[in-house]
What does this fold into?
Amino acid sequence: MIELDAVSAAFALLSSDLSAWLYLLPGLVIGLVFGAMPGISITMAMAFALPATLYMDFLPAIIFLTAIYTGAGFGGSVPAVLMNIPGTSSAVATTFDGYPMARAGRHNEALGVALASSVLGCLGSYLMLFLLIGPVSGLVLKLGPLEMFAVAIWGMLLLGSLAGTYLARGLLAGAFGVLLGTVGFNSAGFIRGTMGIPWLLDGVPQIPAMMGLLAASQLIGLVNTTYLITDESARKISFGKTLSGIRLTFRFPWVIMRGSIIGVLIGAIPGVGSSISNLLSYSETRRNSDDPDSFGKGNPAGVIAAEAANSSSEGGAMGTMLALGIPGGGATAILLAAFAMHNIVGGPSFIANNKDIVYALIFSNFAQAVLLLFVGLGFVYVASYIVRVPLHYLIPSVLVVSNFGAYAIEGSAAGPITLWVFAILGWAMLRYGYPVAAAVVGLLLGGLLESNLLRTYQISGGDYVDYAVQRPGALIIFALMLGSIALQAVSKRRRASKLSAGKPE
Amino acid sequence: MTSRLSRRHMLQLASAGVAAAAMTTPSLLRAQDSFPNRPINVVVPFDTGGYNDRLARAFAPFLQEELGQPLTIINRGGAGALLGHMFFMQQPADGYTILCTSAAPYLPLNILTQDATFSYDDFYMVNLPSQDYTLLATSADSDLQTIDDVIARLKEDPGSLSIGIQAASADLVNLSILADANDIDFDALRMVTYDGGGPARNAVAGGVVDIGLVGGEGFLPLREQIRPLLTFDRRQRDDWEGAIVTDVMGEDARVVVGSQRGWGLHATLQENNPEAFRILSEAIEAASKNPEAIAALEAQQLATEWYGPEESNKMLAETAEVMEQYLHLLQGQ
Amino acid sequence: MSSKPRRKVVWGHLVLLSVIVVTVIAYLLDARGVSTLPTNLLLIQPLSIFALILAAFILPGVFPRKDAAKEPVAGETRLELMRCLALIAALGLLAFTLERIGFDVATFLFMVATMAICGERRWWVNIGFSALFTILLIYGYGTITPFPFPLTVL
It folds into this structure.
């Protein structure tokens, strides 16, 4: 598993060119800033930096790019916490509890929690990569449509917990989201619901829609308020509080561990990655919590679950890229391109022949995670000044930024128009007790759900049961899912009986 | 768009282009009076990270060396390249916007199935170096050893093998040709449709589907996990083992080329501005033949072969013609 | 059943629910128009029907009893609602005009309008901040996105 020769070769490689480490800091900062700008994806940040790496040596080039990757991964959490803007789909679950924390004046703490769990998640994922790079990647290719369908269903379970006061409204919001998520081409080549608009062929633009539903709708509702945090005394920028948030994170080792494992495993699946892992981790954490009702109202464990999972997805995606030579998403595609520029081709033989490079990459990511803790502290300190900005500056500014982000990610007015339509929808839903988050989850999972259900149907020829017995992996996932639900039901009943025992009628 | 607006637009581009140039090429030494005297945009109708994007970015330094002006890559992905092609057509045909695209299958698909507002005659392909081909493959540990095994199994029961494939693709047309040539009931085949070449290839490599028909170049990184059974080309490609179409379907076998990717211009440029047209065509040719460029692109598994405009446009027209014949296959399974 | 006079109508909720129902029905009909093969309707058809059933369950909530617990929108003045709607209108105008009149002009006008809607009364602060922020954004986003923003003045 771990080859000591290769490890020492990796150290030799890393210390051969100490100037390479100079790129660590700028990489992280570029990543943080780009990642914190709504609509600027990790891929865009890395594509932007790619030409510059052409004239670097291999090691500095890779350190620079992976530092951007790491930085941008956390950068997205900052607007998610402070303004309910999921700048990327991987920060959706971060908004569920991060934003309520910020509104309650616990913004410093929330950012501290997010930072620490990102760092720990990233460390954890690379540690797992270090130990397990071979076996996990072998499994990734074996995942069939039924397994993926099971993962999507697992994500959909989250709807139950997001429903809030009115169950029917929650389910309708979720179902509506899923339906909107299937607009456009399906994998069998049918075009539905585009109303003749060319850009809807690829479906509803997800990120602008999420920004509209979650962020713009909130801002519209806030127009009659003067500050993000109503209580003036709570609008403090406190380094101490951020640090206490970091300390708080360490009180949830299980949440971090579960998040990191989910993150690595889901992150390793090409094309799924961090956008699903943060939802699953959040959902599991809430289900297994002693007090599920406190989630969505500012429970730090929710932030930890989401951030540990989305930042550990990086390690999973890197694992797939290194072991199989296939990119799981845009970011790893850019990394592969950078490898190629230096005449290094990924793929199964890559790991076998270049263990030193693989370990060097892993070690440099350990260093990045640690450095992120310090750089990130400074960054969130500055960013948290947003809570002091009066809303009559903040609302126009953030709406405009979201609008630019929506344009940047779509490359046309399709982004801003989607943002607008979904802002109205989100605003109306908020007013009448429909959980916006359920619609977002549905929208995110709709495509995954449909295409894998479709492929399961195709591959089994309609004989689902026959096919399912041949797929032990899928059965295990379904069993785990049912087990988790059963456990929750048992613990709920136990709590209820404890409660009634303690409180005489 | 007003002319005033597009001038501003260009000014903005110029500054972005200079920034890009400062990053990529240290020296730009050409005179400023004749075409081109400002940066040139390269429209890539796909998102960052895909084949065309990588091709454009890898080729750009060598092309801008020839042109003496920086190139700015503009990604306009979406709707199977339709949005990017539309955007390209909306730009003035003055030679300051060029295209790097998968001309086939996307131009025919846009035109045949998506009611595109442009036609083939609006595009002029200078060179389509990447000529992808369909590869029929199975997982390395599959019990299917040769293409004959596959044909025999499908003849006996067309539903016996699950087939990973992309809807509305050249691969699907090739599968249909193979089925017809061997009296296999195409409609009874158990096809599993994927949204992109990558996922379909992964499914083949992991044994999720029994066989798959996908673009062959993309299989290169997965070489060790798959067993190639049939290359849909008249010659052996990329050192794949297994049969080629003429082995299975005889000398007059028909095939559709997979993706044909490369460089295109506005067709009207030829009459409007023959000077710019000539300079661009020659620059692309010179850069394609530049040994440094060839080495750099090969290292990234990108194609550089020079076919020239005549051959490239002819190949595209042929593909378009065959795709039109199989139009019914391209509209949903 | 003499509950007739004791119910009221929550108009906004009625509009929202109608929009959802109409969208779902239109989408289902459109999809059925494309093809009725299972590879097209496998998920869409059952889910649409499920959504319509849910909507039927929710419908009574649109006409709550007068004495029922208050709906979430309580204590909102007409002025406050107008502000929300003005903001929505401004955002829509921005989205539909920014390619036509340029990002710089559209963004600046949007900033000025929305700052006024949000209650900024000092016009010099409004115009100054709006101009500054617009310039910052256009150069900030302009340098890092892989395509240009259409501009008119800047």
